[in-house]
Amino acid sequence: MYEKTQAHFESKFKKLPEGHILVNLGPSHPATHGILQNVIQLDGERIVDSESVIGYVHRCFEKLGERYDYNQFLVCTDRMNYVSTPMNNIGWILAVESLMKIEVPDRVTYVRMIIAELSRIMDHIVCVGILGVDIGAFSGFLHLFHQRENIYQILEKLTGARLTTTFCRVGGMERDIYPEFEAEVKLLCKMLRPALKEFNTLLIRNKIFNERTAGIGGISQEDAISYGYTGPNLRATGVDWDVRKDKPYMFYDRVDFDIPVGEDGSVLHRTLVRMEEMEQSIRIVEQLINKFPSGAYHADMPNIFLPEKNRVYNNMEELIYHFKIIMHGIKVPAGEHYFATEAANGELGFYIVSQGEKTPWRVHVRRPCFWYYQSFPDLIRGGLLADSVATMSSLNVIAGELDC
Fold first, then answer.
1. Are strands 37-43 and 46-53 parallel, antiparallel or unpaired?
2. Regarding predicted confidence, which is higher, 393 or 8?
3. Are 223 and 274 in contact (CB under 8 A)?
4. What does pTM read for this prediction?
5. Which of 84, 154, 233, 321 could be bridged to 344 by S-S, CB 3.0 to 4.6 A?
């Protein structure tokens, strides 16, 4: 890849005007938050032109999806947006379940929604925290990361892992919640609100931060829609599109929450939208945890969901189901299907083509980061080099998702 890009850039930027220079922001750079290459033409500190290169961490996930069965593909979704891993799990499993028309118990949906919203908070904490670090404000990052760690501890107890959780299964969850889950989620919500308030005082309302981020890296509503923006980056322009409201899934049509929007799509407004979205996520989690239902953690579908081990060892019928699921997989009806969820970065969609076998014939992933990053040269052109770092940080481009 380097040889190809080197030849391309040597041709494109062969004759630079006097005084112009080329600099590489990445592939490996503290401000790129992943393996991203931005070749930037500078006139002094002013950006004249830029070109972005992706593909450094491409892992052929869509091709792997044609070889893995429907539960095995979760190990790939774990490694897309690794900042809010469970949301990828949930999006994929919902796509498969809707294709198979599977209805899971309410308890499963409640847990998935709670974990999804806590993951959204984790994702936004990283985005706004790192933005502060990138422009020289380190304290807020450490302050909020303590709350992120509290969420990770809940995930660790629930799934046995912190990052690659793989906790969903077609038809339910890998295991039920642990006994203290409800109490710990309630306590977490109580701690999150004052922490966000303090972070607002510490960084977001800080005059230096406001003046440093206002009006830079902005994009109009029309351009954002043309580029395929969704999520908080689109809502920062004033468009109130949110999959949870506009195409409700799970029980999002049963909970009350608002869709915060910004005005000019700038770095500041992307940050303000994410801050308010964390408040709304807490609001959703509180509604769910206060009426948490009892019941099973998976659908009663023995040909879909693996039976418990003790039943496999003592019951011939369960043993046969276990054998058939492991050896022959879950057979998904033939057809094409697209299902989208509102992940932390925007609309995360999975397109599945099934021919009735245990593996998909084709998988395509609509990952929100891919579309943001296409607009990056337009966002920074004419601006200052230092502002490009803040702009990239506020877009929250995650290389693992971008290159999946």
1. antiparallel
2. 393
3. no
4. 0.94
5. 84
How far apart CA 201 and CA 267 sit, in angstroms, is 18
**Parallel, antiparallel, or unpaired: how do β-strands 20-25 and 37-43 relate?**
antiparallel
| Average model confidence (pLDDT) across the chain | 93
CB neighbour list of residue 148: distance below 8 Å, 6 or more residues apart: 121, 122, 125, 126
Model pLDDT, residue 35: 83
Tell me the average pLDDT across 130-146.
90
List the structure tokens of 93.
């499993």
Least Cα distance to 232 among 197, 269, 199 occurs for 269
Distance, CA of 311 to CA of 298 (rounded, Å): 15
Torsion over CA: 281, 286, 291, 295 (sign) = positive
The pair of structure tokens assigned to 111 is: 């847990």
| 255-276: pLDDT as tens digits | 999 999 999 999 999 999 999 9
pLDDT in tens, 348-389: 999 999 999 999 999 999 999 999 999 999 999 999 999 999
Q: Are 24 and 348 in contact (CB under 8 A)?
A: no
Quote the tokens at residue 239: 């468009």
Q: Is the pLDDT of residue 2 over 60?
A: no
Q: Are 65 and 363 in contact (CB under 8 A)?
A: yes
Sort strands 335-343 and 346-354 into parallel, antiparallel or unpaired: antiparallel
**384 DSSP assignment:** B
- How would DSSP label each residue in 261-278? --SS--HHHHHHHHHHHH
Give the amino acid at 103: E
